[in-house]
């Protein structure tokens, strides 16, 4: 890698990361320097975990970033002669420098880092990009993102992957903010291919989600599904990315009428998402509500009363109510009343599909209440307004019977519908099946939870005695073997 | 004007002339030649290279494919329709801003929706529908297809059939006829479950047959299990789910054992 060689040439300084305790007043710049030393440590010890921590710390700093901090940090982290320095400093707006010097002088002596690490360089790109996005300087942000992507293409280090995946995310985010997502589709595909070749699983995960988002932004469900079904899948590395993936998957499946699978994905996405991601969870819930309605289920009232979502879900609450009652008039009124919300949520077409569920529910209510009712009355109750409501009602009832929504027969000669006696469910195997599926769900949930637990490597090495550790490892191994066997059995 | 473009334009004019005098064989030969010629234009999808007369080229190519789609309907060739439509689609989706939208766009998109409906590819129907902007849904051709799908899902089959009288475009008739066949099968399936029996005249009317003979033939071909006696059609009911008399012991043992195993793992 010629680039790396060139970077290492530039005046190597002694690496001496110092703990933060020394600094009395912790300025933003100081924090940034600490982060840089974390990255450096991660890079030298090849521990990806430390780099993830650095990214997390940066996000916490995000609100406090100022132009002078960023440019001072660039001066600190990048060699002045490097290409990246020249490019990035040009993008950060200039402010008066007097204050900066005072601030920067003191801590600079305490923390110093080795110049020329690619991780640090990429981190600088990321920092500037986040800063520019927060400052709403989208054109500069685009330039920064593009040059960072160009730089990333020449790097192949696992420790960069974490930073790279964040960069991809913000890269796509800038283009989304400026409404030009279509431009970068080819680029993202190329990056995804590169990540696959490098076995950068986090990058693949992030890029796949970005691509899906890109396609779905333009409603290209067909392309999204084709990509998704062909892209390599593996165990999720990041919970956030996995949530996103589930959400996109749920959306695609909803459009393609695979409601049962869609419901599962959407509910799982809503459940797995962190509580702070309120917007995301609202979106998941909206889609999940519609899918459940399309499946003929009525979501419980608690779904709509979740903390902080009540207002956003109101249109969907009223919609659910209309479906529950089975009143076409009310349904139409709600759909019209909230037409703009539904258009904005892009659920308008799905709501059109719901009409048929409203009729079904209405029909089911009728079938439960009456043992015999004339088709003309059914048409009146369902408020079917067409030239020939009785014939419509007859064929609708016939289809509902065939699909198993109601249990009845039609008497064509007399023009009425006769509902059958509902038999005793407990005399069949139904309860047993329901019981089994619930137990299976709970057990599966438990296993998933166990699998999802993460521990930092070697964290309790010191505390345990060697013997205890051996014992524990053995137990773990047994358990893992056992679970693997179980899994094999299931297939 | 570019000589190559002129040549294709002239050939297309000949194609249109052949189409006008309903010489379908000549149309097909000319069309395949035209398609070969089109591959020589670099400004067409997927390359979209900038060229001085790319606008004319794109317009011409779109026009050719639009005619190809309509021709395939005339030939009643659904596979050709699908192929031609796939070639045409990029011109509608990806050329915004380069060439003005075609007046034929919505009728052809509606036609495609109808085709998907006839072939019972409902998932793809909805996928295509999502691609359309809100204002497209107002267009009579698209609206026609959307309403058909709704009536179809609801089970209001006579609304589907009466829509045949109100087709928005003459090319739609072919698919509407196909749809009528699909609808007949659906009605037959529903009647089987919904009625115990139907008089022959009612069944005839419902399944849209003009004579008893046609009805008899349909029943022997499609539903040999139906019975005709005393002037009525009797449907054989599928067996109802009987109350279970036997306990599915083996299955229960299996399930219980798996619960025990899982619980042991937890404790």
TrEMBL record, chain A:
It comes from the Eukaryota. One of its GO terms (cellular component) is proteasome regulatory particle, lid subcomplex. Acts as a regulatory subunit of the 26 proteasome which is involved in the ATP-dependent degradation of ubiquitinated proteins. The keyword Transport does not apply. Residues 243-424 form the PCI domain. This is PCI domain-containing protein. Residues 1-21, 454-474 are annotated as: Disordered. Residues 459-474 have a biased composition (Basic and acidic residues). One of its GO terms (molecular function) is enzyme regulator activity. The keyword Ribonucleoprotein does not apply. SMART domains: PAM, PINT. It comes from Setaria viridis (Green bristlegrass). Belongs to the proteasome subunit S3 family. One of its GO terms (biological process) is ubiquitin-dependent protein catabolic process. PROSITE patterns: PCI. Keywords: Proteasome.
From TrEMBL, chain B:
PANTHER family: 26S PROTEASOME NON-ATPASE REGULATORY SUBUNIT 8. The keyword Zinc does not apply. GO terms for cellular component: cytosol; nucleus; proteasome regulatory particle, lid subcomplex. InterPro entries: 26S_Psome_Rpn12, CSN8_PSD8_EIF3K, PCI_dom. Keywords: Proteasome. One of its GO terms (biological process) is proteasome-mediated ubiquitin-dependent protein catabolic process. Belongs to the proteasome subunit S14 family. Residues 79-251 form the PCI domain. Gene3D superfamilies: 1.25.40.990. This is PCI domain-containing protein.
